[in-house]
Design goal:
Number of domains: 2
CATH class of the largest domain: Alpha Beta
Organism: Nocardioides luteus
Largest sheet: 8 strands, parallel
Keywords: Lyase, Magnesium, Metal-binding
Bound molecules: ligand LIB3CWND, magnesium ion
InterPro entries: Aldolase/citrate-lyase_domain, Citrate_lyase_beta/mcl1/mcl2, Pyrv/PenolPyrv_kinase-like_dom, Pyrv_kinase-like_dom_sf
Structural class: alpha/beta
Pfam families: HpcH_HpaI (PF03328)
CATH superfamily of the largest domain: Phosphoenolpyruvate-binding domains
Number of strands: 12
Order of helices and strands: HEHEHEHEHEHHEHEEHEHEHHEEHH
CATH architecture of the largest domain: Alpha-Beta Barrel
CATH topology of the largest domain: TIM Barrel
GO molecular function: lyase activity
């Protein structure tokens, strides 16, 4: 197997394309909000959503009717040209690489609105070869369209082969921005027996041992998380590659409580954001993927108590040392990144008083 040398990895893949980034910028992306650019009602709402959500994503793939694929592509071009996105990022999800639409998706979007497009989400990624294909094509199109900064790639993990290859996918290109879980396609590909889009399942459980041998008695059941293994594997692959992991879709729009639980589990495991399919999921994602005031208060206290960052101290009966300081700095750094784009959060975090 031939390998690229590091210097080749950081050379543009087409003459005239912008140089690849050496580090993926930590831009807040708590909610990646999906809209169908061919749906006039949704499209009309996009300009007013700028500034209320970290990422607006024009979806061209699943959930867009086949008859509307061209209208969705053109709708996204029109919206992008007419809208000032400010600090809100503009992403797209292109059609799958084996579809009849994807080539024109990329040619049209990069040459027409490449200067406004931050990230291209690629569905059903099977292995690094899929990323290499998009990587080279993007470079050629950036050169053709005169795009001055590289458009990044986000992969969706929604096939068993993709999950098996997740580390290679994460490391496939300096354009790799992150990876999301695609639980619906992944469930189908794996032949899992859930018909839900993300979330748990009442049948996937562990039951309390019988009390006094009474197996028919009242035994507490603990519902388990179908997605824990995949998310944990994805988080490790992303951390190794220096890119960002995301939950994905939660299809039960009405169950805002369970959505919040799934998002919080993902946040605690290391994910930086999730998808939002309906406007009501944006507020949930923004809240869950922003550290709480209590977390920041504690983290800043530890930072202060640790002084030069070495040794061990006791705070409220608990040991803090170099390693727990690093954990606290994850939260403090995230709070700073979010405060830079979210004035309400900045105000909230600025009012925190640190006790000794
Ligand atoms: C889920 C929906 C079909 C629900 O739509 P609707 O029935 O119209 O909801 P409401 O009546 O509650 O809508 C109220 C108003 O809000 C607008 N609306 C709805 N959704 C959005 C949106 N995403 N962005 C902007 N505006 C939105 C409605 O038009 C109503 O407007 P008005 O009548 O003027 O008041 C719908 O929300 C939807 O289609 N969402 C996106 C679905 C999607 O993108 N799915 C694909 C991603 S998930 C996936 O692909 C699976 C994954 O790949 C995997 O494999 O796991
Ligand atoms: Mg899918």
């Amino acid at each position: 197997m031939s390998h690229k040398s590091p210097k080749d990895f950081f050379a543009p893949l087409a003459v005239g394309a912008p140089a690849p980034l050496r580090e993926i910028p930590a831009r807040p992306s708590r909610a990646i909000h999906f809209f169908d650019p061919s749906n006039p009602k949704m499209a009309a709402k996009v300009p007013d959503m700028v500034g209320t959500v970290d990422v607006l994503l024009g979806n061209l793939e699943d959930a867009v009717k086949a008859d509307n694929k061209l209208a969705a592509r053109q709708g996204l071009v029109d919206i992008a040209k007419a809208t000032d996105f400010g600090k809100t990022q503009l992403w797209t999800r292109i059609n799958s690489l084996d579809s009849p639409w994807v080539l024109d998706d990329l040619v049209t979007l990069v040459t027409e609105i490449g200067d406004k497009l931050d990230v291209v989400m690629v569905p059903k990624v099977q292995g690094p070869e899929d990323i290499h294909y998009v990587d080279r094509l993007l470079a050629q199109l950036e050169a053709k369209g005169g795009v001055e900064r590289p458009i990044l790639i986000h992969a969706i993990l929604e096939t068993a082969r993709g999950v098996a290859n997740v580390e290679e996918i994460a490391l496939a290109s300096p354009r790799m921005q992150g990876i999301s879980l695609g639980p619906a396609d992944l469930a189908a590909d794996r032949k899992m027996k859930t018909t839900r889009v993300g979330g748990g399942h009442p049948g996937y459980l562990v039951r309390q041992d019988p009390v006094d041998g009474d197996i028919q008695g009242n035994r507490t059941i603990f519902q388990q998380d179908l997605w824990h293994y995949t998310i944990a594997k994805m988080v490790d692959a992303c951390a190794e590659a220096g890119i960002y992991p995301y939950y994905g879709p939660f299809g039960d729009i009405t169950d805002v409580v369970a959505a919040e639980d799934q998002f919080r589990n993902a946040f605690l495991l290391g994910c930086v954001g999730t998808w939002s399919l309906h406007p009501k999921q944006i507020e949930i994602a923004n809240r869950v993927f922003s550290p709480s005031v209590e977390d920041i208060k504690h983290a800043r206290r530890v930072v202060k108590a640790m002084g030069d960052g070495t040794g061990a101290v006791m705070l409220d009966g608990k040991m803090e040392d170099d390693a727990s300081l690093k954990q606290c700095l994850v939260l403090v750094d995230l709070a700073e990144e979010l405060a830079a784009i979210d004035p309400k959060l900045k105000e909230l975090y600025d009012t925190i008083e640190i006790e000794d």
